[in-house]
C-alpha cells in the first residue's frame, strides 16, 4: 500500500484518538481505550515495516506513546500491552523472521541426520554425545522392560522447575551466541541436532523408535521447536552485525538485539508448557492415540502461531 493511501485511510481514526487523549470527545471506558491502543500499535507496526524513516511513522510513534500513558492512567497498561505483544507484535516480527527461521530449521535437521548417520557407523558415538552414565542407565531400563524409565526417576515438581529453567537457559544461550556473528548460534543448533539424531538412532537400533517417539515427543515437540526458534533469534542478532543494510552497523545491531530478545521472550510460555508435559505427562503410560494427539496438537500450535498466523496477519494488514 502506498504511504499516501495508508495515511488517507487512517487519518480519521488517528484524529479520533487524538481527541480522546485530549479529552475533547466523550471519555471512553478503559476497554475502549485499550481497543484503540491495539489498533494504533497495529498501524505503527505496519508503518515501521513499510515506511521506517517516514514522518507518519514518527507521528504514530508519538501518538502511541500518548495512548500508552492514557492506558497507565486508566490502570489497564499491562493488559493492553500483553494483548498487543502476543496478538500483533510478536507474530508480525516472526513474519519478517521467517527466512531465518527456515535457515535455523535446515541447520538443525541436517545436524540430526548427521547425528543419526554417525551413530549408525560408530558404535561409540552415542556414548560420546549422550555420556556413558545415561547410556548405561537406559540399557539397564531396557532390560527391565521400561526403556524410558528415566522420566520416572525424579520428583515431579522439582523436575518441572529444573527442566524448565534449563530449557530457558539453553534458548537464551543460543540467542546470546548470535553475538559471535551467528557462528555461536549455528554451533548450538548443530550440537543439539546431532544429540537428537544420535539419541533417536539409539532407540531405533533396538527396535524402540516408535515407542520413544510416542513418549519423548509429548514434550519434545514444543521443546525442540523452541530451540529452533531460539536459533532464529540468535541468527537475527548475528545477521544484524553481518548485514546492516542501509542502517549503520550499530543501529542495525540494536534493532537485531531487540528483535531477537522479543523472540526469546515469546518462547518462555512454550518452555514452561514443555517442562510441565515432561515432568507430569511424559512419565505416564498413555494410550498411543492420546500421545499422538498431544504431539499433533503441539505441532499444530507451533505451525499456526509462528508460521501461518503471521502470514495471515501480514496479508490482512497489507491488503
UniProtKB/TrEMBL annotation:
The protein, known as: Stage II sporulation protein M
Lineage, broadest ranks: Bacteria, Pseudomonadati, Bacteroidota, Cytophagia, Cytophagales
Record field: transmembrane: 100-120, 216-242, 263-282, 288-309
Keyword annotations from UniProtKB, A to Z: Membrane, Transmembrane, Transmembrane helix
Pfam families per the UniProt record, alphabetical: SpoIIM
Domain of life: Bacteria
InterPro entries the record matches: SpoIIM-like
Amino acid at each position: 500500500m502506498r504511504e499516501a493511501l495508508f495515511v488517507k485511510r487512517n487519518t480519521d481514526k488517528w484524529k479520533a484518538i487524538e481527541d480522546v487523549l485530549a479529552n475533547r470527545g466523550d471519555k471512553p471506558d478503559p476497554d475502549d481505550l485499550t481497543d484503540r491502543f491495539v489498533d494504533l500499535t497495529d498501524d505503527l507496526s505496519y508503518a515501521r515495516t513499510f515506511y521506517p524513516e517516514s514522518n507518519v511513522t514518527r507521528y504514530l510513534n508519538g501518538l502511541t506513546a500518548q495512548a500508552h500513558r492514557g492506558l497507565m492512567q486508566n490502570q489497564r497498561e499491562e493488559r493492553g500491552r500483553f494483548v498487543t505483544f502476543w496478538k500483533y507484535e510478536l507474530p508480525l516480527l516472526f513474519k519478517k523472521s521467517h527466512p531465518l527461521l527456515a535457515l535455523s530449521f535446515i541447520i538443525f535437521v541436517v545436524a540430526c541426520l548427521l547425528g543419526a548417520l554417525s551413530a549408525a557407523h560408530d558404535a561409540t558415538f552415542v556414548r560420546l554425545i549422550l555420556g556413558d552414565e545415561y547410556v548405561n542407565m537406559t540399557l539397564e531400563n531396557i532390560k527391565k522392560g521400561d526403556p524410558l524409565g528415566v522420566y520416572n526417576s525424579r520428583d515431579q515438581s522439582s523436575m518441572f522447575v529444573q527442566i524448565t529453567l534449563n530449557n530457558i537457559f539453553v534458548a537464551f544461550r543460543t540467542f546470546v551466541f548470535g553475538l559471535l556473528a551467528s557462528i555461536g548460534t549455528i554451533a548450538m543448533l548443530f550440537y543439539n541436532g546431532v544429540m537428537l539424531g544420535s539419541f533417536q538412532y539409539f532407540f531405533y537400533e533396538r527396535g524402540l523408535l516408535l515407542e520413544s517417539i510416542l513418549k519423548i515427543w509429548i514434550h519434545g515437540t514444543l521443546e525442540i521447536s523452541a530451540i529452533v526458534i531460539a536459533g532464529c533469534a540468535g541468527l537475527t542478532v548475528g545477521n544484524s552485525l553481518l548485514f546492516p543494510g542501509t542502517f549503520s552497523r550499530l543501529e542495525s545491531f540494536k534493532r537485531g538485539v531487540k528483535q531477537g530478545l522479543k523472540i526469546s521472550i515469546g518462547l518462555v510460555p512454550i518452555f514452561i508448557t514443555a517442562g510441565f508435559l515432561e515432568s507430569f505427562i511424559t512419565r505416564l503410560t498413555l494410550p498411543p492415540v492420546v500421545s499422538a494427539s498431544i504431539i499433533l496438537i503441539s505441532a499444530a500450535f507451533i505451525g499456526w502461531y509462528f508460521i501461518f498466523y503471521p502470514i495471515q496477519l501480514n496479508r490482512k494488514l497489507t491488503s
